[in-house]
From TrEMBL:
Pfam families for the chain: Rot1
GO terms, molecular function: unfolded protein binding
Official protein name in the record: Protein ROT1
Physiological role: Required for normal levels of the cell wall 1,6-beta-glucan. Involved in a protein folding machinery chaperoning proteins acting in various physiological processes including cell wall synthesis and lysis of autophagic bodies.
Location within or outside the cell: Endoplasmic reticulum membrane
Organism: Hydnum rufescens UP504
InterPro entries: Rot1
Amino acid sequence: MLSTIFASALLALTASPIPVRSQADIHNVTGLAGTWSSGSGAVQTGAGFANPVNFSFTYPKNTGISWSFTDTGFFEQAEYQFRSNGSEPSCITGVVLFQHGTYQFLDNGSIIATPFAPDGRIQVQDPCAAQSNTITQFNTSVLFSSWRIFQDPTRGPKLQLYRFDGAPLTPQFLVALPPNMLPTQVLTPNNQSAAVAKLRKLTFIVLGTVAGGAIGALMLVL
């Protein structure tokens, strides 16, 4: 159902992409380029968060989200979230995920981020699951319906992203310019076939376990 909704929304948005640099001054106090991080800034993209080559994460001290963008059309996404279970309060699920790839502006101001399929990683820690700690490949395009950058009087530029249904994500603040990112290229090219196979098994995790956190907080579109 969610895939159908997204497909319909994407069809309505398909248009000639606008060059990245032309978006800098339309409705913002600064350009999109840089590393942005929510809350205390504990979660940030770059080498200190994920290593897709050896399937590993370095856990931050606090939860949060982080997005990085370049002026040349590349992005990186990092997330560390907890998800509660209303029926089983002790079964709190922890999720960390990483993706990077390319992004484009559409002519209505929305953003579509398309990851490098082999490189995405997601780790789910669920003390109540048969496998309490799993890490696998992850590949999910992200559609932001709109975005704004405001000037916070205390912390400076503040990025507000809106997911495909218009709901706002957690605000993020500029923490690095130029952005802190892994190399903007496919880092694990030999994992393409394995990624496709594992992602088929991830459908329920993405729609169920990650839906409340990743879709709600990061506007992941499936």
